[in-house]
# Entry
Amino acid sequence: MPINPEAVGSTGPETEVTWSSKESLLYALGVGAGVADPTGAELEFTTENTQNTQQRALPTQVVVIGGGSGVDFGEFNLAALLHGEQAITLHQTLPPEGTAIGQGRVAAIYDKGKAALVVLETNVRDLAGQPMWSTRTGLFISGEGGWGGDRGPSSDWQQPDRPADQITSFITRTDQALLYRLNGDRNPLHSDPSFSKLAGFDTPILHGLCTYGVTGRLLLHALCDSDPDRFGSLSGRFRSPVTPGEQLDVHLWDDDGTVLFQTRVGDRVVFDAGVFTHR
# Structure
């Protein structure tokens, strides 16, 4: 079996990562910042030379900066891989440009029967050795389960039995995926109509991490007064793809200080089991 369950606990090499002011601007535009914003409230994320405005970075940008390369857990068919879960934790505010050191780790490999769930963690520190951010990514790989291993914990997330305390929305652009792909993910599933048809989609679909970034941006404004210093963590599971041009509605429930959320397109849940915490 190509997936190696014995790889759990192994780490990759320490890797230097850098990001620039321009890359931070591009990421912000890629997740919809500045669109139809006549007040200029997002200029701190989308410009670097506005009078009396200091450039800032969106917290979810950490998912495209990286730092966890070189982790080996076996060989498999890339076409069988599905991004299932994503979590980030900010230990300090992400600056709009910088250099840091990251290291990846295979945190767990679970046997889901017909698939394997590989959980990868990345921890990133600044050049002074202080933690900056951590990410946790769950990858479902079909055809790689069935070796009799641990199935892993089940989720205890439950939607509160009441209407959302708040709903915040954003209509994605029809060219949102074409813009977001400039952050590094050039998978033709998100840009080439002929390729997306082979994958079973009528049109190219939006990157899951773009949906994640739009969700994080909406939560930043709704829960942190747009202040990245207050953004702590964001986690959840991908449920279904989004077509560029669709409206994302984030339904929020404040559950004793911890915010639970779902991102939906109409009645369809696209990002589920969401948990947000402040820092």
Remarks:
- The chain has a mean pLDDT of 94.
- The beta strands are 15-19, 81-90, 98-111, 115-125, 131-142, 166-171, 231-238, 247-255, 258-265, 268-278.
- Residues 5-142 form a domain with the Thiol Ester Dehydrase; Chain A fold (CATH 3.10.129.10).
- The first strand starts at residue 15 and ends at 19.
